[in-house]
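Weekend entry, working from home. Most of the wet-lab plans are on hold until the incubator is repaired, so I used the time to fold the two sequences that have been sitting in the queue since the last round of cloning. Logging both here for the record. First:
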Amino acid sequence: MKKLLQLVAVVLMKIINWKKLSFLLVIMTAAGMVLQTYTLPPKTMASFYTSLNGSTVHLSETLSLERSEQFHFVPTAPVVSLSSSSVQSVPVAEGRARVSPLLRSSSSRRRRRRDAKIDRSNEQKAVSSPPPPRTPPTRLQRYIWSLPPDEALLYAKREMQNVSTVTEDPELYAPLFRNVSVFKRSYELMETILKVYIYPDGGRPIFHVPHLRGIYASEGWFMKLMEENRQFVSKDPKKAHLFYLPYSARQLEMALYVPNSHNMRPLSIFLRDYVNKIAAKYPFWNRTHGSDHFLVACHDWGPYTVNEHQELRRNTIKALCNADLSEGIFVAGKDVSLPETTIKNPRRPLRNVGGGRRVSQRPILAFFAGNMHGRVRPALLKYWSDKDKDMRIYGPLPGRVSRKMTYIGHMKSSRFCICPMGYEVNSPRIVEAIYFECVPVIIADNFALPLNDVLDWTAFSVVVAEKDIPKLKEILLAIPLRRYLVMQTNVKMVQKHFLWNPKPIKYDLFHMVLHSIWSSRLNQIQVSES
């Protein structure tokens, strides 16, 4: 038997090419290792790296394959635990296959895109927190929801007559408000009660097509968020407390206005015919003569589109950027002053929010740059352009100046940002100043300040009469430093109430505008003393 085995061994030694067999085994082993690298899940990969040299490398179980391959394993390299901030040195395997330049470039591009997406997400989280989870309705809420709309409004009106004092609320900064206790209770009642019916009537693009870009974007963002909303919108008009006329004054102007005609009457006639149509089709307009209906218009011509329909002009709640008290269209106490916000990128409406500098890094006393139109801006330029190094007042920002510091850079470097009216009383610079944490100086007589039914503008802005433009620097220097520091802090705190969040959150601009409309509707309710 022993001789037989020796004979078989001699034959195999002569027949088999052992060099080729060894090479084949090496190739198969290497291929198996590479195959495991690309097919095993991250958790198994961690075990695989452990088995290479008997040491342990801690990788998160959720770490993606692509991300894990970006680590370059070298001996005794520092490894950061993804779940903590500690750094420890551990021995790790060295034998990682090199990645080709093409794959490395592609991976780098994907990483940059992913990091940019994370940055945008973090940017939004930095200015707002996610909405709290919904809680089951209480017995009181179920009772209120069972009430007919008129009775629910009457209940809310009575509740507003007995408001408890708010001593502390982490979500509301009391110095910003006329009466934070009244606002908080009214807001809570809105969240519990309010239902809005949106008329489906109206052809595109004038109706149901939000204009989301530019200085008139506020009306479009309200329309977009209102039509997407599930909490406040009711499909049943019989359950509604308010009725929304979903038209865009900007789209109306682009569709019907004849350039250079200076004739806005066709726009007003179009809106008149629309209201007559829904009044004939539905019973709700005639029931209250339009007093429980509302519209939202930020275009300068918004007030003038209602002139051909007397009930629309007199009774309807109008949320307008052009909130001019001198023309007899905007009615204080009934209508709502809508903030004018400039949105340059609808996909990132919060892109330019924040980033303001500390007071010590704001060497400029006051800044303005813009086109010369209206009655106020030429006077501002006349008295202050090139007159004082502390007063940076320009027409359009000159190239020699913008090459050294951009428009946004000027706002971030100024203590006060001048916000004069243009053709109309409203100005997008007011909200721009708030975004860049610069105290706004508003020069526009007869202007009802945005959301002034709840916000106390003296806490975070300066209002200067048009006749006092020659004394502008004197007025600003008369504000004590301690007072200015408080105002600038308040500007930061009020930012959250002027943000168009892609998904609305509590107390943001969508909710603030809707609350002012709700509050106007409550003001119409009469409660008998008995």
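Second, folded right after the first finished:
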Amino acid sequence: MEFSQLPEVQDYKYTPLKTDEIRLLKIHPGLDEDVVSCSLEHFPLSSDEVILPEYSALSYAWGSDQTQFPVLMNGRQLTVSANLHAALQEFRASSSWFIPEADRHHKQSYFIWIDALCINQRDPVERAEQVKIMRKIYQQANCLTAWLGPGTSDFEIAASALGRLKTVRKQRSTKQNEAGISGAFSASEEEWIAIKNLLQNQYFSRSWVIQEYGLGGIIPFSDKGLKNRVVFCCGPGRIYDLINIGMEAVSLAVTPDSKAPKYPNPWEGIGNGLQVLIHARTMYQNMLLRHQASTPLDAVPPGFQTTFATLLLSQCNTLSSVPNDKVYSILGFAEQLGGNVVKSYITHELIIDYTATPQEVFASSVRSIALATGRLDILGAAYKETPSLIKSSWTPDWTLKTSLPVYSLRYMLYFRHGLDFDCSPDTKCDVGFAHDLSTLTVSGFVLGKLVHVSSPVPQFSSMAGTLKYRFRAIADLLDEHGNIISDNTWDRISEILLMYLPIRFPMIQHFPAAKANWSEQLRDWICNMKEDELENKFIRKRTSMMDALVQLLDKGLDFNDDTLLLALMNSTSSKPPAGFEDIVVSSNGHIGFTSHRVREGDLLCIILGCGRPMILRPVENHFELISESFVPSVMRGEAIGEWKAGKWDLRDFELY
């Protein structure tokens, strides 16, 4: 029904909310041709006097269709988006959007919380206040309802196939059937395409979904247990365990025998998105279980350490119609996780205001993290590969879709897994933020100017060709600038080649200055790796390959064997960190890897409290942050040691 067909009624006007109060929606029954009729009621979210009724929290995408449809709200008119209108029409026809599978025929009418209707979207103050309690809204919901859009034939095909997969999973978990799942489940090409289309639904790329799915529909019961009440709705269709079943499907899709489309391969991206949601929900579930067991929240297993920065970084490729929501959408989730997460940012240093610009909000995220942690590693995310709405060079643009993880992500996400590189260890950042967050002043020192920046690597028809070209470029660079190469760099030649160059061994052929016993040095380095390095999961996975590599070194190598070169590439970290394609040399002889945006004359700098060297560019009386870099000769704090010994002078850099 078009808006013009709605009988003339007054516009709905929201009654202001009191502190810690929310609105809940009730959808009234009606015929398909009737205008959707709803009502809103106010309830305190936390009260000893008023019991909050059972309700579901809706998780959905607002959608790109800007068409507005009329609804009646407490007898007055209001308009909603096309996607939400379709959900309201479906939900008034059946209450199965709320009831768990075993009770689907229960006829009770339930409340539902929907942000577009339960928050006055025209009031930025109310929106900001509701953002602060959003976590409680989803946490206290009795159910999470995820709306994927109107029903489609693809959904029916996918749901049928995933239903069979769910049955196979249950059978596999019994003692009577312990066989692998891949041999017990098969799907046609049509079914795989339908599964792919379902899992690529825009819902899964929303910024808010990490908080909504991470917190919603997890109900503690008994003394030490949790019950999951999540229902995914697509038109009249329902799936109750889509994320986990979908992840199982992704793992099967990439097997050689599956009929799933593999070129171009969509499954890695789908799997990464689902894994983020699974990880978020698991973190919250573990927190609840630790609470039930009276275990301190900080008592998390060694390994992955979630921080506010890692949550922000996980949002890089999500979508949001409001840029500020890139930050706001994880606030409640971070607060709910507590423990080390809430220690990694300062809430009052964040600008929570929908009238603020993205520049102000994103800059405040840097301030919040830096002042809480004393670290500036987040500056690594400020590198912008494409045009950005953020103009300051030191502020990340969380709206950009990016080819991350670049080294900043790998460093921050996996730091606790053993990537112990830190060019500024045991230091705290010394920062000053302008009142309007237009500038950031940091302390550090200059290692030298860039005197060489390599040309971009040409495109080759084979991987071996690309790798050989890059290696020869390194060899020529070392020959040309050998007179200024620092002692630390020469000492690390074997390590540089092993860990950061795609092809290592032709060095002996193409760089005569390399020592004759380089192979022996390399072998010794592999065999004598520190025990703490061998503890991290990356090295453990490669141990057998490294053993084989040592045997090859003992027997001698055929440097012209492309197959061998590619095998060697896969035996260790195969290339410089992703996104670091350019090789640079500084005036004092440091070799590093960085992004395409650098140029000769830029400064290679160590910033206190920042784990990677930064490339800064002098511009008039200030500096621009160009890129982070990876410089093997200083990545374990060597330059900081020299600074403490008086070699370098500390200075301030005002970043615009």
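Plan for Monday: verify the second prediction. Residues 113 and 651 are 53 Å apart (CA to CA).
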